[in-house]
Structures are given as structure tokens and as C-alpha cells.
Amino acid sequence: QVQLVESGGGLVQAGGSLRLSCAASGINTRYAMGWFRQAPGKEREFVAGVSWSGSSIAYADSVKGRFIISRDNTKGTVYLQMNSLKPEDTAVYYCAADHVWGDALLQTTESDYDYWGQGTQVTVSS
Length: 126
Fold this sequence. Notes:
This protein is mostly beta strands. Helices cover 0% and strands 50% of the residues. The strands form two sheets. Strands 2, 4, 5, 6, 9, 10 and 11 form a seven-stranded mixed sheet that branches.
């Protein structure tokens, strides 16, 4: 059974930092990992993604230069370091896994991902 479990969300003041973690289990193939977020009243959007090998990384324009995605395949975990947080970063953050056939493949579309975590709330106060 595939499980993705996020942790690290919380309440932080604007300008602060948080690090989200997502532990994956039960996946027996190569998989890219992505972070998405959904703010109240808005659609879920792509935030960042990393390929299986880590050689391909993508960020949404809104987080470039502030967020850093990384992964540790020995632990089956992906991280999202979020710096210089803004109130508009407030959302539920979800991690997702995408079966891939290549080490460097990475998708940024929600529908391409096969498994999802339950989400973790990030609230940035002004």
C-alpha cells in the first residue's frame, strides 16, 4: 500500500521559514515527487517538483528563489524548504508521487501524479 505522509506545516510570521517533509512508502518503482498547494477558494497549483535522480527540478514562478526542493532516496523522503514566506503562501500543501520510466523525467501537471498525501497546513501571518 502506497503512503505519502507530509509533516512540518504550521503557523509562521511573514519572512520566516518552514521545512516540509514527505515520507513515501510502498512505491517499488522510480517516481518523481512534487509539491502542490491549495489556498482557500482557489484551485490546487504546482509548487515544486524533483525527478527521481534529482537532476531535474522545477519551481512555480511565485516561489522561485525562495523555496528549495530536495529528496533523499535512501529515506524515501522529499523536502520543501520554504524561506521568506509571504501571507500569499498560506495554503494546504500536498506532496505527490509520479511513476516515471526515466531518472530525469519530471511533470508539473496535477493529473500526471499517481499518489497523494493528505496535506499539511501552512499559515503565514502578516
